[in-house]
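Methods: example folding runs. The two proteins below were folded one after another, and each record is reproduced exactly as written to the output file, sequence line first and C-alpha cell line second.
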Amino acid sequence: MATLTDDLAAQLQGVPASQFAQQLGISQEQSSAAIGAALPLLMGALGKSASQPQGAQALLGALQKDHAGMDIGSVLGAVLGGAGSRQTDGAGILGHIFGGSQPRAEAGIAQATGLGQGQASQLLKMLAPIVMAYLARRVMSGGSTQQAGSAQALGGLLGQEQQQIRQEGGLGGGLLGAVLDQDGDGELGIGDLMKLGGLFGRK
C-alpha cells in the first residue's frame, strides 16, 4: 500500500529532483536518493507530533491558515527562487517540526546520503514547505477520511503514516528512529506544535 510519503516522493522525481540537484550542487541520482531519505523523516516527525490532540490541532491550524490551496509546483518555484514568506519559511517550519532534534535530523540525512551537513540542512528547508502544502491539500480534500479538515482526521492520517514508515524500515524508518526515539532533549512537545500554529497564524 502506497504511503503519503511514496506519493509525494513520486511527484518530486524527474524535473523537481533535477531542480533540487542544481540548487544543491549534486547529481540528480543523489538528489532523488536524498529526497527519498528526507521525506519519511519529515512525515514521521509530523506524525509523532500529531499523535497528541493539541499537536494535531496546532498543525491543522497552520495548514488551514497558510498552506491550504497551494500546489506543490508553486511552492517548489518559490523555494527554488528564494521567495521569502511564511508559506516557504523552511527554516521556521523545520525548527517546529523537529525542535531540539533538528541538528540530529540534518546529521542523519548527511550521513545516510553522503551530502554535506550544509546541503542536508538546505534540502530539509526546501522540502519542509512542500510537505506542508502537500498535507494541506490531502487534509482539506479529505482523502480517504470521513472528517475532512479535522484535527482527528489529520492525527489519524499522520499516525498511520508514521507506523507504515517504521514498519517498512529501510533508510527512512531507520532515520526516523535514530532522530526521534532518543532522550527528551530532542523530543518535540506540544509547545513546539503550538508555536508552529502561531508561527504561521495570521493575526
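Second run, written to the same file directly after the first:
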Amino acid sequence: MTTAADRDAADPLAHFRDRFVPADIVAYLDGNSLGRPLRVTRDNLVRFVDDVWGERLIRAWDEGWMQTPTELGDTIGRVTLGAAPGQTTVGDSTTVMLYKLVRAALEARPGRTEIVLDTQNFPTDRYVLEGIAAERGATLRWIDADPGSGVTADQVAAVVGPGTAVVVLSHIAYRSGYLADVPAITEVVHAAGGLVVWDVCHSVGVVPLQLDAWNVDLAVGCTYKYLNGGPGAPAFAYVAAALHGTARQPIQGWMGAADPFAMGPAYHPAAGIRQFVSGTPPVVGMLPMRDMLALVDEAGIDAIRAKSTALTEFVLDFADEHLVGKGVRIATPRDAERRGGHVTLDHPSFRDLVQQLWKRGVIPDFRPPDGMRIGLSPLSTSFTEVERALRIVADALP
C-alpha cells in the first residue's frame, strides 16, 4: 500500500510547500476558506510600502495603479479562468461584484423577470438575489438541490423558460464539493434565452476553468481561498466580451467612467470591462494575489488539479477505512469528475469536535448541520499532513 510519505516523495509539487510562511500547527485543512500566505508576499508588502507607496506617493496612480484592476484581471483570466484579455476586473467584495453582475444581467434581458437559483447555494448568493428580486420586482425560481450533490442540467432545464432573465449557480457547491457541469448548464440557459452568472469562488485556482470556451456569460469569484490573496482580498468579475455593449453595471462610480478625471456632470461608462469598476481600486489588497498567481502559473493549473484530485481521493480512502465504521458519512461525490477541491464528512459530533481540533492545531472547518469540511490547497498541503490530522479525528471518535 502506498503511504502518505511515499505520495509526498513522489509529488512533483512538493517543493512548493517551502514557499509558504510556516505555521506552528499540526495540519491546516481550511485552505478553501483562507489560503496561507507566501514568504515572498511578506517581503513584497514591505517593499511596496518603502519603494512604491512611500517613494512615489500619489504619482504611482499615473505610473500603474489606475490600471491594476484590469491588468490583474487579465492575469487571473489567463492563469486560471481560460479567459482572453479585456474581460476580467478586480475590486470590491464578492457580494458587491455578484450584485453588479446579476443586476447587469437582469437589465440586459428586458421583459424577462425571473431569476433562477438553488436552495443549496452559498448564503450570500441567495441573500443578494432575494434583495435584487425585491428591488426590481423580479420573481425567484428555486431549484431544490440535493445537499449531497448539486444542480444538474436537467434540473435547470425544468425551470427555465421564456421568463428567465438570469440563472445564478456555483461551479462547486460550497458544502458538498459537487462540481457542476458548466458547459451543459450554460447551453440549457442560453437555449431558453437567459444569461448565467457562475460563482467560481471554490474552483478558481484549483480546478481548470475555460470560461471563454464554455460560452460563460458572467462569473464572479473571491481571491482569498486558492488564490491566497489574504483576508478580505478583493473579488473579481468576468464579463464576456459579447455582453460589453448590453450589460451595464448599476454602481456607477467615477473610476468606471470613460474619463474619470473629467469630473463631468453626468456618468458615461468606460468601454469594455473597465465600466465594471466603481470606486478607487484596492491596490494594497491586490498585492498578495499577484504572488500566488505567479506560483499557480509556475506550477500549472492542470498539475494543481491532478494533486487536488489525489488529495481528495486520499481523504476518501482514509474515511472509508477508518471513519465510516464510526458513523461518519461521506457527503462529497466520489467521482473525481464531479468533485472539487474539498471533502465534507458528516457526523453528529463534528460541531463540538472541530472546536477541539482547533485547540490541538488541526484546522478544518464546520458547515451545518454536521459537516466537517476538509479543504486541501494543493501547493501548500502534504499527504502526510492530511493523514496526521485524520488519524487524530479517528482517535477522537468513539
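Comment on the second run: The chain has twelve helices and 13 strands.
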